[in-house]
């Protein structure tokens, strides 16, 4: 699959943009394990043009993580165009427009998935951004606002006509948020539409290597995007890529190996931010990690991880987990 001159290979697996998740350290870790392209956290166009320090930091990308996309959101055309020009100066490979974020503070104000209730404005913004920058522009959106307004098949054509060079579709409506199962049938319909010429990327509930292959084979998408399944499990890209390349499951990664990856994630987060903010950022990833699923009487340990405030405290908890459970959990 190619987006302009960016060749992502035959079965690309991408890291989805996620607020408070896809910071530079996490992106590099996922890249190391096989992610073919990574996306930044959401960047607010309003905050960007006001030069908010925290937002400007989200534009920091490195050569090691390329190809990398910076994703922006907003609701005003002039503001998003100005923000897009600022983003272009950061030299990402791709500029992605977020028309899919369902959270109330974004969609409730008409941005993100809120644009699904104002398609003319969505198209106006898309055309304006495509005209304003030289780098490829892509879009990420959802099936529609709710079950009665699943408009994605027609909308995909209209977005393509605006000049975007790839489209990512999350298989839920805004009303669903992240509940229920993602519906890939409509993603497949978008791809099967003979009028669609640009790559179509599918997103939603890709949690196993077998499901990744099924999405390629059953729905014909050009790429898949993995989001929440990477929480506390950045090695999912290693597992998925091995399965897609060989047709076989990757031999089980040991409990210690995976725990050491999580230790790296902790260290990288602290190094990127500082001890206090790094711990706050990473501890919920640890608590959500499937690595600890099935460990008996783990509730108190999980609570302790969520409450840890210092690096020695958190590392002590991980040491305890390894000593208490590691020898019995090799799969």
Question: Which features would summarize this protein structure in a list?
Answer:
10 strands, single chain, 14 helices, TIM Barrel, 2 domains, alpha/beta, 331 residues, two-stranded antiparallel sheet, 8-stranded parallel β-barrel
Describe this structure in words.
- The protein is an alpha/beta fold.
- The chain folds into two domains: 2-246, Aldolase class I (TIM Barrel), CATH 3.20.20; 255-328.
- Helices cover 44% and strands 14% of the residues.
- The protein is built from 14 helices and ten strands.
- It has helices at 24-32, 45-49, 53-57, 77-89, 104-107, 119-132, 152-161, 184-192, 209-219, 236-246, 255-272, 275-288, 299-307, 311-325, and strands at 2-3, 6-7, 13-15, 37-44, 68-73, 94-99, 137-142, 167-170, 200-203, 223-226.
- Strands 3-4-5-6-7-8-9-10 form an eight-stranded parallel beta barrel, surrounded by seven helices. A two-stranded antiparallel ribbon has the order 1-2.
- Strand 7 (137-142), helix 7 and strand 8 (167-170) form a beta-alpha-beta unit.
């Amino acid at each position: 699959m190619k987006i302009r001159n960016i060749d992502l290979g035959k079965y690309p697996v991408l890291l989805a943009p996620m607020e408070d998740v896809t910071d530079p350290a996490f992106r590099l870790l996922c890249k190391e394990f096989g992610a073919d392209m990574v996306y930044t956290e959401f960047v607010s166009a309003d905050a960007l043009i006001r030069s908010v320090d925290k937002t400007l930091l989200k534009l920091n990308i490195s050569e090691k993580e390329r190809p990398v996309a910076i994703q922006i959101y907003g609701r005003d055309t002039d503001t998003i165009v100005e923000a897009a020009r600022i983003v272009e100066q950061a030299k990402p490979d791709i500029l992605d427009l977020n028309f899919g974020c369902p959270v109330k503070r974004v969609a409730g104000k008409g941005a993100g998935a809120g644009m699904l209730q104002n398609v003319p404005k969505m198209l106006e913004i898309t055309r304006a951004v495509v005209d304003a920058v030289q780098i490829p522009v892509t879009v990420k959106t959802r099936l529609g606002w709710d079950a009665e307004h699943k408009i994605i098949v027609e909308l995909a054509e209209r977005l393509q006509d605006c000049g975007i060079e790839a489209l990512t579709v999350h298989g839920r409506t805004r009303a669903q948020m992240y509940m229920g199962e993602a519906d890939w049938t409509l993603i497949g319909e978008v791809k099967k539409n003979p009028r669609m010429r640009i790559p179509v990327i599918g997103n939603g509930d890709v949690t196993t290597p077998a499901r990744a292959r099924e999405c390629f084979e059953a729905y014909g998408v050009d790429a898949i995007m993995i989001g929440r399944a990477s929480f506390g499990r950045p090695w999912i890209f290693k597992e998925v890529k091995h399965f897609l390349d060989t047709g076989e499951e990757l031999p089980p990664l040991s409990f210690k190996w995976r725990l050491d990856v999580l230790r790296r994630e902790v260290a990288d987060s602290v190094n990127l931010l500082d001890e206090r903010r790094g711990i706050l950022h990473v501890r919920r990833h640890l608590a959500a990690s499937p690595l600890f699923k099935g460990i008996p009487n783990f509730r108190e340990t999980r609570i302790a991880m969520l409450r840890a405030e210092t690096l020695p405290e958190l590392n002590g908890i991980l040491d305890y987990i390894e000593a208490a459970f590691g020898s019995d959990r090799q799969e």
